[in-house]
Predict the 3D structure of the following.
Amino acid sequence: MPRLSKAFVVLLTLVPLVATFAAMGITPALILLVLLVGFAAGWQRPRNGSGDPTLLIALVAVLAWSLLSIWWSITPGFSFESGAKLVGIMLIGFGGVQMARMSDELPRNAIIAFAAALGVCACALALENLTGLLRAIYAVLHLDFSRFIDKNVNRGLCALVVLLWPAVNGLYRFGAARAGRLLAAVVAIAVVGMDSLSATLALVASGAVYGLIMKWPTRVPHMLALAIPIFFMSWPLIFALLDKPVFADPDIYNALPPTAQHRVEIWRFALGKAFTEPWVGWGFETARGIPGGDVVYQGERKYMPLHPHNSAIQILLELGVVGLVLWTAGIALVLRRWRKAAMPVYHRATSGAAITAYLSIGFTAFGAWQTWWIALGWLVAMLWLMIAREPAT
């Protein structure tokens, strides 16, 4: 289907541009990708052997508990609206992944276009670091450059770190490993030169995971599949135990970047409220309505600016221990399937890096239920299945 191939090229060229400068557009990009893959796969149902119901059962369980919590939510109207969006995007993404497993691999020119567009975006941001050209244009037009950086580019930097790894994987697959390393270097220059600490940490963590899996392709995935769910489940307790001896120490606290200091205050406040409703939480997407969260301190900071900026703490706060256990189990099942799937080492390394980048950013930056961020995860999963076309991936 040549026309469909051209559509893939166009869409995958636009994805990095949208992700970098208008991240909210990732959701419609996912929907378009699902439609294209559906047409390419002929809207087939999964073949025998590919219909393992375990992940579907886990998905239904976590969504059911999230929706059930609307019953006791302190903001039931907003919880219902957000719950409907969550169910919608999860079902769209899950359906897209099932069809991606049966579609043909992405055309080579689509993967090259995707990687090239990613590189152009990274170069544009790196150029901005060196010249300040975009800042100057905004000043001439009397536009708020700082808001553009905070609301658009900082989101885009996080998205670029996650999108980097399927691009590197695609280039590696077609024998362009050097181009993949060059792309990673350009993205690193763009990320490090900007102000997003979350993107920088994710880049470092994912790069480390990539290198470790390339060196120990069997041992490291086993360790990650066990360590990530344990850490996710334990993080609220870990932070609570470390708060007074570490984060409350004035010398340590004052040495942290301002954004990290704010995270500490948000997590401290959120955990205090979570412990008052430990088992079932305050209800789905209620973080912004928690009493006391709108209190302002040190100028513009709030104890709860919309969400806790940590997925584990947000799930505990809103869905309680029950919700945290269910969502951790879902993550564990995904990692278990990833660990057991047969794939070449470079697929394993780049997919492990993407998983690490996505989860680490969720631990420091965005709300757990932000639609565009969930859509990005599904989009990357779909790209992966159509790039890593070897059996059982």
The chain has one domain: 2-229+312-387.
